[in-house]
Amino acid sequence: MRVFCLSVLFALLAGCSNSLQIDDSYIASGQNSRVQYIVLHYTSTDFARSLQLLTQGEVSSHYLIGEAPATVYRLVDENRRAWHAGVSQWQGRTWLNGTTIGIELVNQGFYDGPNGRYWQPFAPAQIDALVVLLKGIMQRHQLPPGSIIAHSDIAPQRKVDPGPLFPWKRLADEGLLPWPDADAVARQHALFSTRLPSVQWFQEQLARQGYAVPMQGELDPATRNVIVAFQMKYRPARYDGEPDAETAALLLVLAGMQASR
Ligand SMILES: [Zn+2]
């Protein structure tokens, strides 16, 4: 009975769609892409397992880029939602699957060995392919520089990908990301070395960048995790979560660049 009812319903719906004529003569000028950010990830595993996880499981991404060869696979159409961000927040927006394009890079991530944490470097050809892909996406969706963010930026309490070896500076050199001027950072670094700003100041500056960060003025583990995410991106030589003078300088110079845009 239930099967019969459903088939009748589908027949009726099919009949309706056939009879409805939609006129596409007019296009509204007030519209833009639903995509606001591009989120970068690494897969933490090899290609075969990455492909399996991203095509047959609960998680997915719009693109997957192999290591060797650095083939770019499109797994989800850009206009549809992929399930890559999870619980996430950036610039006050939450649940970012609906407004982002997710790109996964095949990379093992890290392992903790006897001499500390080892991170796997990214293959140069993989980054070359990523740069071309990013330029195309940014053009298709009219995204401004700075729209490319890390999974660790939008979920700093539970994610570290794409990690400290991801070459953000390379993206900046390609014009895809605003980058703090080294001389300006050096000047501010010298000033902050004599007097470090308060934890509250760091939290305000990190929030201004887009991070979801506690605002109570305490250097708690959650705040440290956010500082780590910021440092992995802009000062990967040391990402210990310490609110130091150079981190302050980077934040201040970036804030000045934001204000002048
Ligand atoms: Zn991720």
TrEMBL record:
Q: Which GO terms describe its molecular function?
A: N-acetylmuramoyl-L-alanine amidase activity
Q: Its catalytic activity?
A: Hydrolyzes the link between N-acetylmuramoyl residues and L-amino acid residues in certain cell-wall glycopeptides
Q: What is its EC number?
A: 3.5.1.28
Do you know which Gene3D superfamilies this protein is assigned to? Peptidoglycan recognition protein-like, PGBD-like superfamily/PGBD
The record's keywords, sorted A to Z, are: Cell wall biogenesis/degradation, Hydrolase, Signal
* Ranges in a coiled coil: none
Any single GO CC term annotated in Swiss-Prot or TrEMBL for this entry: outer membrane
Q: Where is the signal peptide?
A: 1-21
Q: SUPFAM superfamilies of this UniProt entry?
A: N-acetylmuramoyl-L-alanine amidase-like, PGBD-like
**Record domain N-acetylmuramoyl-L-alanine amidase: where:** 23-163
Report the top EC class in one word.
Answer: hydrolase
Source organism's superkingdom?
A: Bacteria
* GO biological process: one example: cell wall organization
Q: Which SMART domains match?
A: Ami_2
The cross-references to InterPro entries, in alphabetical order and at most eight, read: Amidase/PGRP_sf, Amidase_domain, NAMLAA_amidase_2, Peptidoglycan-bd-like, PGBD-like_sf, PGBDSf
* Protein family according to the UniProt entry: Belongs to the N-acetylmuramoyl-L-alanine amidase 2 family.
Record-linked PANTHER family: N-ACETYLMURAMOYL-L-ALANINE AMIDASE AMID (PTHR30417:SF1)
The protein's name? N-acetylmuramoyl-L-alanine amidase
